[in-house]
Amino acid sequence: MTSTEARGASATREFALALASGGLYGATNTVVGHPFDTVKTKMQTQSGFTSSGALASARQILSSEGAVGFYRGCLPPMWGSAVYRSAQFAVYDLLYAEAERHPASLEHVPGTDMQWRVLGAGAVGATARTVLESPIEYAKVKGQTNQKWRFNEVYRGAGLQWARTGPMMTLYFCLFDACKRNGYASTPTGQFFSSGGCALIGFWVVWPFENLKNQAQAGKNWLAHARTTGLLGLYRGIVPGSMSVFLRNGAAMIVMQRANRLITELGLRD
């Protein structure tokens, strides 16, 4: 489970509760992180920004579009983030709870204290998120780069989306599980740094796919981009992107855990 509260008896009830608290996680994620994400996306894909640094890009957005420019394209991820992030947590919590009936899934991954069910539920939860996330990410990138999106293209870059989201979220679930087991997520401060740090590590691992995914969704030739930019170039935008990932996932986890505490206090887990 991603909740720090004691789990209830019903796996399906935990699934429903995770949908609700995960939705709050997703909405908070967008509110906090979207301005940094806009800077990152423009730096990677939009003409006029691809040779500027993060601060110069931010100043350019502010001068040409105003403060509202940092939230351009935020509507798809605002509602979409609530949907696909609630799905990732709900699917993870459902499978995690159901796996308790299968002793083999409770065995530890060799060389670790992590149970196999964490890895399995994390991989399935990450895949569920990808299916819902890809069209939303496509619309977001189009909005951030001042382009119109087309319905028949909403799964453009879906393969790159999975290559980015699948490993990233599986790693996130595994790392956050370790933080919980070691008591690092028992306080709001610990939750902030645990979730933000786990998400940041996951994003650093898959960052080239984030760049290539944005190229594809912006309508550019991502293969040609990969050949010409080199590995170092694929890490362009990592500074504002890292700030976005760390702050939004840290803040969102605090909101989600407070919601879970309220759920427990209201007796909804009984």
Automatic annotation (TrEMBL):
What's the protein called, per UniProt? Mitochondrial carrier protein
Q: Which UniProt keywords apply?
A: Membrane, Mitochondrion, Repeat, Transmembrane, Transmembrane helix, Transport
* Segments annotated as Solcar repeats: 13-98
Q: Got a GO cellular component term for this one?
A: mitochondrial membrane
Q: Where in the cell is it found?
A: Mitochondrion membrane
Please give the biological process terms from Gene Ontology that the record holds: mitochondrial L-ornithine transmembrane transport
**Top-level taxon:** Eukaryota
Any one GO molecular-function label of the UniProt entry = L-ornithine transmembrane transporter activity
- Which Pfam families would you find in this protein's record? Mito_carr
- Give the record's family classification: Belongs to the mitochondrial carrier (TC 2.A.29) family.
